[in-house]
Design a protein that fits this description.
The chain is an alpha+beta fold and 281 residues long. It has three domains: 4-97, no CATH class; 113-208, no CATH class; 212-276, Nuclear Transport Factor 2, Chain: A (Roll), CATH 3.10.450. It has eight helices and eleven strands. Helix 2 (13-28) runs antiparallel to helix 3 (34-46) and helix 2 crosses helix 6 (83-97). Residues 10-61 form the DUF1707 domain.
């Protein structure tokens, strides 16, 4: 298949989200300045084709070990995409998932891992193990567990934005007493920093996760596949972020085994504001 043909394929919501994740990584490593980052992210969120998404990350440096990790963990696509499109999609996942593999902007300090679970005493000279509790972040129970642990870790429920994936949670929040700096974190049973702190505008709008109505969210998670026209679909991710209105937006992305997607947007109280059904459904 000619390389230019896949570039014309229509982009899915998950393609846009994963490209944004790669832009996040590039910004965190200093490859993009704030203006470039904001401009490209805005373009990624409205991109129509895979070619448009690929062009937004084509000039970014992608560490080979992250690309290799993505190739090993990501199933081969049903349709062959161009090399750049594959890199944009696959490595975006690795950039977010492999937060313990690398550090940003030349910081040689290993990511900090905070473990809340009780551990047995460690014999002298032995490394302390990382305890990861099994949980499903995109289930109501997983969301409740995360909120409880988040409150314990940070003392509040404020966040710039947060994405619940199937096996982990990725978030950004301001540093304590430093509203002009932000830190990316991942949660896999314990909290780990992702890269070095970065600049943050003082007018950044935050989200109060205490206002999430998990019971109403549970209804959306349960009924969503049918509402988007994909009865066998599963939750791919839950994205909570500020919105142009006074309230935040919760976007739930559903995907079935044929990689068809649909999305439901709600307010924090569970009020549905938009349903994006799968194409042709």
């Amino acid at each position: 298949m000619p390389e230019r043909a896949p570039a014309r394929k229509r982009a899915r919501d998950i393609d846009r989200a994963q490209t944004c994740a790669l832009l996040d990584a590039g910004y965190g490593e200093g490859q993009l300045d704030p203006a470039e980052y904001q401009n490209r992210t805005a373009q990624a969120m409205t991109a129509k084709t895979l070619g448009e998404l690929a062009s937004l990350v084509a000039d970014l440096q992608i560490p080979e070990h992250l690309a290799e990790a993505a190739r090993e963990s990501t199933p081969a696509p049903r349709t062959r995409l161009s090399g750049r499109a594959v890199a944009a999609i696959a490595v975006a996942v690795a950039a977010v998932c492999a937060t313990a593999v690398y550090t940003n902007r030349g910081d040689d300090t290993p990511p900090q891992t905070v473990v809340a679970a009780e551990q047995a005493p460690i014999a002298g000279g032995e490394p302390e193990p990382i305890v990861v509790e099994a949980f499903d972040p995109v289930s109501p129970e997983g969301v409740r567990n995360f909120l409880r642990r988040y409150q314990q870790q940070f003392g509040d429920l404020q966040v710039d934005d947060v994405i619940f994936y199937r096996t982990y949670v990725f978030l950004t929040r301001a540093l304590p007493d430093q509203p002009h700096r932000e830190q990316d974190w991942s949660f896999r049973g314990g909290f780990s920093t992702s890269g070095a702190p970065d600049a943050r505008t003082l007018d950044t709008v935050t989200v109060d996760l205490a206002t999430v109505d998990v019971d109403r969210l549970a209804e959306v998670l349960a009924t969503g596949p049918g509402r988007v026209g994909l009865p066998s679909a599963k939750v791919e991710h839950i994205f909570v972020r500020p919105d142009s209105s006074d309230d935040a937006l919760v976007s739930v992305l559903f995907q079935d085994q044929d990689e068809r997607t649909g999305m439901i947007d709600t307010r924090m109280d569970g009020t549905v504001v938009d349903v994006s059904r799968a194409e042709g459904r």
